[in-house]
Amino acid sequence: MILEEEGRFLAVASNAGSDQPPAWLLNLAAEPLATLRVGPLVLSVRSRVLDPAERTACWDRLLAHNPLYGDFQDRTAREVAVVAFDPLHC
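The structure assignment produced for this chain is given below.
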């Protein structure tokens, strides 16, 4: 699930609470430029993992958007990453 917030899009890299991060997160670490499809929108974006302070600031809103994120975080010892996708403007 993607949450739009303040001109960017956020995604939680939960992998359903697995101790392994999702493959898409590893792919973005190797290449942060991507194409994001959100409903009918197709956007060129730059991705980045939020730092701990940024993650904390938006975590409650993400939980309100999808309460399962809290369950997924509880299932794993790793901190579930939150990824921001910032649209590239030409």
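Interim note for the steering committee: Residues 2-87 form a domain with the Pnp Oxidase; Chain A fold (CATH 2.30.110.10). Residues 52-65 form the longest helix (14 residues).
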